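Page 37, continued from 36.
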């Protein structure tokens, strides 16, 4: 039995096979991504290198290399490889393959049975694998895009190790596309075509972490382009949408984020959504946009709506957790929220003003009454003397001066009358009146 007996063999000219098939990695060194399980010393890589493989399930989105990884594992561990499709196979086929695998084990050969879309097998079909997995007749590798906790029976889950694969990052897909353009044996190298990094990134962003989709777009664009370079029009035709290119380190990058920021500040949600969409379609780093929108929440909304920064941080985490394209909806929601929120830069102005005073004045010592006195000597020196503990007072407002003498009576924070800050202004007026000994309302 050959190493890949049972694996459909390509017919005709290999060059006519799809680019994604031709560019399948053949070694772990060629395999891109999934460093969390395949990096040096990581669990799955250690299993493979030590040849201590057990049954496992690869869970992840389409196009991240589940089938490819299963083939590499079988090759490196010198196992026979039998692919199964949960869409096309039933219990009869399962039992026939299991009988062959059992005979192979008795003759000293191991078999990897790869089940694509294992979540499509019903309970009875999944049950059929159990005795063979338990006896070690086969090493089962299942692949699924669905959560195994819900789609794979518990008996099978308890006998397998689940590895979660992540969608490929745009940078990783750009690397794969560059490799395909250079490779003369398996890729498009013989066409002698080049492509700009911005154009390849557009393909990567469009593919949403799916290498197969990215390869398909590149192949279509290459077929429609003449040397020496893949054209923007060819990529647009392949994507069936307009490509918006801009240099993310150049002027247009800063122009667009400036337009988004100023639209939010001007309480124009429609304009904010327009500039946001321009950046998303151009392939801007989503986390960069999220970070800038956190800044908008702090700088332009501030205490007029304290929840704005909470929303911004939540969306930043959402973008990180969901990725593209689902996370983009979070950014759109945040752009609308920040645009319609009441605005205040009072905290921003206060920090600027106090920083200016700190920079341009003598650094006075901390008043003695504000200093802790952990030792008897420090108490004798007057540390803590005259300190008023706010919680000992009925209204928790002291008349104690907390600034150094040279700054006594200075005010830097002047709240607006917008949003929550209007209530803060009322409270602050009450506090300041109480400190001056006036009746506290």
């Amino acid at each position: 039995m050959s190493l890949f007996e049972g694996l459909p063999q390509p017919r005709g000219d290999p060059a006519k096979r799809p680019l994604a098939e031709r560019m399948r990695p053949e070694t772990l060194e060629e395999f891109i991504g999934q460093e969390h399980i395949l990096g040096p010393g990581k669990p799955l890589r250690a299993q493979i290198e030590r040849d201590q493989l057990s049954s496992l399930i690869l869970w992840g989105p389409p196009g991240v290399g589940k089938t490819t990884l299963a083939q590499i594992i079988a090759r490196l561990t010198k196992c026979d490889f039998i692919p199964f499709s949960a869409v096309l196979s039933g219990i009869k086929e399962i039992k026939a393959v299991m009988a062959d695998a059992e005979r192979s084990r008795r003759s000293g050969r191991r078999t990897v049975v790869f089940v694509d879309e294992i979540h499509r097998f019903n309970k009875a079909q999944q049950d059929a694998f159990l005795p063979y997995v338990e006896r070690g007749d086969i090493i089962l590798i299942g692949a699924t895009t669905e959560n195994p906790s819900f789609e794979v029976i518990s008996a099978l889950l308890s006998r397998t190790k689940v590895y979660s694969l992540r969608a490929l990052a745009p940078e990783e897909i750009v690397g794969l596309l560059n490799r395909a353009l250079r490779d003369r044996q398996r890729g498009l190298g013989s066409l002698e075509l080049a492509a700009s990094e911005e154009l390849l990134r557009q393909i990567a962003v469009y593919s949403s972490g799916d290498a197969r989709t990215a390869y398909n777009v590149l192949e279509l664009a290459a077929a429609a382009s003449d040397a020496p370079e893949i054209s923007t029009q060819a990529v647009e035709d392949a994507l069936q949408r307009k490509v918006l290119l801009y240099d993310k380190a150049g002027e247009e990058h800063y122009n667009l984020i400036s337009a988004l920021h100023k639209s939010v500040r001007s309480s124009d949600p429609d304009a904010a959504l327009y500039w946001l969409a321009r950046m998303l379609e151009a392939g801007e780093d989503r986390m960069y946009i999220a970070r800038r929108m956190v800044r908008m929440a702090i700088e332009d909304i501030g205490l007029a709506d304290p929840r704005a920064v909470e929303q911004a941080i939540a969306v930043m985490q959402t973008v990180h957790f969901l990725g593209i394209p689902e996370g983009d909806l979070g950014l759109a929601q945040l752009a609308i929220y920040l645009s319609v929120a009441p605005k205040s830069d009072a905290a921003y102005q206060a920090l600027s003003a106090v920083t200016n005073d700190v920079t341009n004045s003598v650094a006075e010592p901390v008043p003695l009454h504000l200093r802790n006195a952990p030792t008897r000597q420090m108490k004798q020196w007057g540390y803590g003397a005259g300190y008023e503990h706010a919680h000992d007072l009925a209204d928790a407002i002291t008349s104690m001066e907390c600034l150094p003498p040279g700054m006594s009576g200075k005010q830097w924070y002047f709240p607006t009358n917008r949003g929550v800050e209007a209530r803060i202004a009322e409270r602050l007026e009450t506090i300041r009146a109480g400190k001056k000994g006036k009746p506290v309302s």
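The chain has four domains: 14-164, 170-239, 251-340, 365-435. Flag for discussion at group meeting. Residues 1-10 have pLDDT under 50 and may be disordered.
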